[in-house]
Specification:
Length: 399
């Protein structure tokens, strides 16, 4: 019985295909399909049908990237984050893998991803930047898609809620307000009649003085109130600005994570408590080398040429949520990503969220400093899939 050549081949999720995917992504951009096929043969043991499917997928990815470069050259700027053909195609493939339920093509986009024949198609108008075409899993209703995209307060949050529902993730539990019971204590003291008359006489004699004192006290109280209000409003403005930055960072992190199906929980996968302070290389290899990108945060330390056509190496100092050790990344970067990093104005202080596919980890031994402090660090090598700034000196947002 012969196999239909046109029948799509499912690429298994195995260490061999992970290794093949990494070497394909690192291959020179001018590689032919025959050269890519030979590269897989030399580095990974997979079936011929899987090898052919992976080469075809890589050729299509490179074609999408070349079209993105051509469009960027025509309009003078790269595609908006999350809207390159490569990223849109990856999201279009996600429903079939159970990773993400939809892909959004903006109204102005002329790109149509491949493999969307089994997805539902919904047009959304009047939703600003969320207008356009949505290819989505058939379990999601077009009415829910339109309602979420047109949400006046947080359309991205509404779409994320639909995605979480599709994945079967439980929504965050809402905290119920705690009712506080108050006790009213009433107490009245009776004043003798003689004392009441004497007090009234004193009040009448000193009424002008009391009025003057009252005016002064009122003025002082008004000044204190005004000063307090100014400080309160300034504090509220600072808190509102910080909340806005936090929300913007969360939105960027969520988009990058969803676009690449990146693992954002790798810091929590260490089985030994001692690994959070003094890990071994094998523990970092198990945490970082997943066969899919990891989500990390860091500062760009340097950018240098890679020796490959147009590509560069980006060196990043990791800024973790919980870790206490020195981890750095040396990542192969495509020209568009490198250009965005080089054009970043706050390059000395901006924290970046990155999606990266890690291929190897090593420990670099360094001599101690003048105070005999350990200077060793871990260096992870791989492919930089995306890098987006989330703000100067910004801490990674909480999960």
């Amino acid at each position: 019985m012969s196999i239909d050549e046109d029948e799509p081949v499912e690429i298994p999720d195995t260490p061999a295909t992970w290794k093949a995917a990494v070497v394909l992504a690192a291959a020179p951009m001018d590689s032919t399909s025959e050269q890519l096929d030979a590269l897989i043969r030399r580095t990974a043991t997979v079936t011929s049908s899987v090898r052919k499917a992976m080469v075809g997928q890589e050729i299509q990815r490179r074609a999408n990237r070349q079209e993105d470069y051509a469009q960027a050259a025509m309009i003078g700027e790269p595609a908006a984050p999350g809207q390159s053909r490569e990223e849109l195609q990856r999201l279009a493939d996600a429903p079939g893998r159970g990773e993400h339920p939809y892909v959004h093509l903006p109204a102005a986009s002329t790109f149509k991803p491949t493999g969307v024949e089994d997805l539902a198609r919904t047009q959304v108008k009047g939703a600003g930047p969320f207008s356009g075409t949505y290819y989505h899993a058939k379990e999601m209703s077009p009415a829910d898609i339109r309602k979420a995209a047109r949400d006046k307060q947080n359309p991205q949050g509404a779409l994320d809620a639909l995605a979480a529902k599709w994945k079967g993730e439980a929504p965050a539990a809402e905290e119920k307000p705690v009712e506080l019971k108050t006790e009213e204590v009433e107490h009245q003291d009776e004043i003798p009649a003689e004392l009441a008359l004497h007090s009234g006489s004193i009040l009448r004699k000193n009424a002008p003085l009391l009025v003057t004192v009252l005016v002064i006290v009122t003025g002082i109280a008004a000044w204190f109130y005004h000063s307090h209000e100014v400080k309160r409003r300034a504090a509220e403005a600072v808190e509102a600005a910080a909340a806005a930055r936090e929300q913007q960072a969360r939105s960027i992190v969520a988009r990058v994570g969803n676009s690449w199906n990146a693992d954002d929980n790798w810091e929590d996968t260490f089985s030994s408590k001692g690994a959070y302070v003094t890990p071994y290389t094998i523990e970092l290899e198990n945490a970082l080398i997943k066969g899919r990108p990891i989500l990390a945060f860091g500062l760009v330390e340097d950018v240098r040429k890679s020796g490959e056509q147009d590509n560069s190496f980006v060196l990043i100092q990791d800024v973790g949520r919980t870790m206490k050790w020195d981890l750095r990344f040396s990542l192969l970067s495509a020209p568009a990503i490198t250009k965005a990093i080089l054009n970043n104005e706050d390059r000395q202080s901006n924290t970046f969220v990155i999606a990266a596919t890690i291929a190897s980890v090593e420990k670099v031994s360094m001599p101690p400093d003048e105070k005999d402090n350990d200077q060793d660090y871990f260096l992870a090598h791989g492919i930089l899939q995306e890098a987006q700034p989330i703000g100067p000196f910004a801490d990674p947002p909480h999960q």
